[in-house]
Each structure stands twice: as C-alpha cells, then as structure tokens.
Specification:
Blueprint: H1 9-20, H2 28-36, H3 39-66, H4 72-80, H5 83-116, H6 122-142, H7 145-172, H8 187-196, H9 198-205, H10 221-251, H11 253-257, H12 262-271, H13 275-297, H14 299-307, H15 326-340, H16 346-377, H17 393-412, H18 414-437
Helix pairs in contact: 1-7, 1-10, 1-13, 2-3, 2-9, 3-9, 3-10, 3-16, 3-17, 4-5, 4-14, 4-16, 5-6, 5-13, 5-15, 5-16, 5-18, 6-7, 6-13, 6-15, 7-10, 7-12, 7-13, 9-16, 10-12, 12-13, 14-15, 16-17, 16-18, 17-18
Keywords: Membrane, Transmembrane, Transmembrane helix
Transmembrane segments: 12-29, 41-63, 84-106, 126-145, 152-172, 192-208, 229-248, 268-291, 327-346, 352-371, 391-411, 417-434
Organism: Chryseolinea serpens
C-alpha cells in the first residue's frame, strides 16, 4: 500500500518549525552564554549558526527536490552512496532522534509535574508524565497522519505565540544592566569560546532535515518542500535572534549565564505571580509539539529501509484507512519509552545527538554534488527542480561548519565521541547481518 500525498505547505512548514523549535531555545541559551563568556561572541555565535543552518536548509531543499521520496533522508544516502553507509547513518540517526525526543519529554515533564503530581516523588512523577504523554500522542497519530498534523499545527501556534510574548518582554521592561562588565576575549580564547558554542547552537537550530522524510506525503513535492523549508527556517531564525536579544535585555548577560529556569524568569516579566503555572503549561505544550513531529517523521525512515529490504516488509505496511505506518510507529514509540528509563543528563544527550547529526547532515548535503553530477552525465534538464544559488560555496560552508561541530565533541568530550564512533561503525556489520537474516542480497 503506497503513501498518499496529504500534507500541504502549511502542514510541512509547521513540521519544520516544530522539529527545530523544541525546548532547546528555553535552555541552550544559558549554556551558550556560559561558553561564549562575553555578549559579542554570544550574538556572533547565534548569527553564525543561523547563517550556516540556512545554507544547510537551502542545500537540503535542492537535495529533496531532486530526489523526493518517503523516508527521504535514508533514500538520499542509499541513492547516492553504498546502502551499507546509508544504514550506518540512519540507524544511529533514528536512535538519536528517539533519545532526543525522550530527553525533551523529560524537560517538559519537569515543568508540568509539580502541578500534576505535587506530592509524588519527582522521578516517579516524571516517568508517569513522559510515558503517558508519548502514549497519548501515539494514539493521536494512529488516527492518521493528517490528524497528527492538525494537532501539531495547534500546538505550534501556541508555542510561537509564547515566543512572541517572551520577545515583547524587552519592550515592557527596561533593559537589565550587569553589575560587572565582562572583559573582552582575544586571540585563541575568543576562537575557543566561539567554537565551544557550536554544539548547543546547532542543536538549537537542528531538525529541519527531517522534512526530507515526507517527499511522498506532499503534493507537488518539488515546489512544496523548498518553500516549506524556506518559510519554516526563516521564521525560526527571526524568532531565535529576537528571543536571544530579549534574554540579554531582560536578564542581563551575567544573569542569563546563571538562570536555571530561563523561561520562567522571562515569562515572570509579563505575567508576574502567575509565571510558574503559565510557563509549566506552555513548556509542556511545546514538548508535545516536538514529540508529535518526531512521531510523524521518523517512521518514514523505517518505510524507506523496508523498501530496500534492509528491514522486514512489515515496516512499510500502511493502514489503508488512516495512511499510518502502525508497526513502524509502534517500534519508534517503544524506543522512546525505553530511553525514558535510561537517559542521563541533557548535556550528555546533546553531545551524542550532535556527534551523530553532524555525520548525517554532512553526508546529506554532500549528496547534492553527486546528484548534480549524475544529472549532467545523463543530460537531464532541471525543469521543475529547485536549484540553490551560489553553488557550491554555500554547501561547502555548511559542511565545514558541521565538521567543526564533530571536531568539538571529539576534542572536548573524547569519551562521548569514542562511544559514538563505535556505535556508528557497528552499523556496518549489522547491515550485512540483517541482510543475511532476511535472506535479501545486499545492493552494491
């Protein structure tokens, strides 16, 4: 049963915004400020991250336009590279996405749990809240992808409205002035501080690549996918920069570096004594939007793998009435729930996720070189294909930027990088083991 096109431009744009704007913007600015040490590097890092991420979005828009397909991120790899490499990247990508969703769910539960279970032990209450939330969204998505997209649209409108309210705080309250002015960094110290910002910066901007998994879910994908990425990423970049300015203006830079409940403090400027309850509810809704988008996107990767006989055919089974991949969705939800019992700190998850994502995104963007070369050799005209401007320089800048992310994890967190590399390399023998178990020949 094939997947029918049901998502329109607005649906896909909301998916872009949702997978990028998770709860990271309510937490990572604190870490970025700590690593940047001074406001100048803080804002330069945000701007650099925005520009490089937008270059990546432009590149992936062309990649997706040239090769739109369900499970597009995986399909691009298997189409441009050896299928074993495609499996290696995507099996860690799916696991990392599930882990990221689980960590975000925990962050949201930490906000809402005091309201839901004030007398329950924190760990027990958080576990109940996160698992119940994932199961609830699982049930919604079983009703069909369009139903899930509508739920996402409502949650995203709420979350964007809250971000606008947070930005407005800079106009409601005079700017906060730091008691102590930080000394400017120079030379190697400034470069190191800037480099350290890359992991949390790109984590906060990441996620837009998941729209490539919906190539068969949108009508006229060659036009709709690039437009949706443009609209979604453009909205994200503007909101992030404005929110960052608001944080510094309201809290002061030194205050920002020492604000564990960042969203609560900003919202308190607007709603006063009701800030705690307001923030708790909004943060929880933001988490629902992120996890819901993850449930929409990631089963498409299983579909792509099953189409190429990497996974059993049952993973590409689609319910004819709801157009939902019930088996794939169930497996992905099971992985998230498993992570909810095993996750460590947010910082450790961030390093693992960015180590894996940097590998996948570099390979995905490099695919544009392969696709363009094949088109030239086949003398194929680019009619109806989105072609990015300033090729190949924008793509090369993006690749260098994410290579620095990977290098940052290897340099500052070598243990994390070592384990991540072992997991990545383990995908190679695992691919051939699965091929042999399912008795399907590997495609050269």
């Amino acid at each position: 049963m094939s997947i029918k096109a049901r998502l329109n431009t607005f649906d896909l744009t909301m998916i872009v915004v949702s997978v990028v704007i998770g709860t990271g913007i309510f937490r990572t600015p604190v870490e970025i400020a700590q690593k940047a040490q001074v406001p100048t590097i803080f804002f330069l890092a945000w701007i650099a991250g925005a520009v490089i991420s937008f270059f990546g979005a432009l590149t992936l828009a062309e990649v997706g336009s040239r090769y739109p397909a369900a499970g597009g991120f995986y399909k691009i790899f298997s189409h441009c590279y050896h299928p074993a490499f495609a499996f290696m990247v995507n099996w860690i990508s799916v696991i990392a996405n599930a882990g990221s969703s689980a960590s975000v769910a925990i962050m949201g539960a930490e906000y809402i749990n005091p309201l839901l279970f004030p007398n329950l032990a924190p760990e027990a209450g958080i576990r109940i809240t996160t698992i119940a939330s994932v199961i609830l969204l699982y049930g919604i998505n079983l009703g069909g992808i369009k139903m899930g997209a509508r739920t996402l649209n409502v949650l995203m409108v709420i979350k964007i409205a809250v971000l606008v309210l947070m930005i407005s705080a800079m106009f409601i309250r005079p700017s906060h002035h730091d008691a102590a002015v930080a000394q400017a960094l120079t030379g190697n110290d400034a470069l190191k501080a800037f480099w350290l910002c890359f992991v949390p910066i790109f984590f906060t901007y990441g996620g837009y690549h998941q729209t490539m998994n919906f190539g068969s879910d949108v009508p006229n994908a060659n036009r709709t996918m690039p437009r949706s990425i443009f609209f979604g990423m453009g909205l994200v970049l503007v909101l992030y920069l404005l929110v960052s300015i608001s944080y510094v203006n309201v809290l002061g830079f030194e205050g920002l570096k020492h604000s564990p409940a960042l969203a609560a403090e900003i919202t308190a400027v607007i709603v006063g004594d009701y800030a705690a309850v307001f923030v708790s509810i909004i943060m929880f809704l933001a988490v629902l939007a992120y996890v819901n988008a993850s449930l929409l996107s990631n089963p498409r990767v299983y579909y792509a793998m099953a189409e190429e006989n990497v996974l059993p055919a049952v993973f590409k089974k689609v319910n004819e009435r709801t157009q939902t991949q019930e088996i794939a969705l169930t497996v992905y939800v099971a992985i998230i729930i498993l992570f909810l019992f095993t996750l460590s700190s947010f910082q450790k998850i961030l390093n693992y996720v960015m180590f894996f994502d940097s590998i996948g995104l570099i390979a995905a963007c490099a695919a544009v070189f392969v696709l363009r070369r094949r088109a030239r050799r086949a003398n194929v005209h680019d009619v109806g294909i989105y072609k990015m401007k300033f090729y190949p320089w924008l793509t090369l800048i993006f690749i260098v930027g994410y290579a620095l992310v990977n290098a940052s994890v290897m340099y500052f967190e070598p243990g994390t990088a070592f384990v991540g590399f072992l997991l990545f390399m383990a995908g190679y023998p695992l691919y051939y083991i699965l091929q042999k178990v399912f008795k399907k020949p590997a495609v050269a």
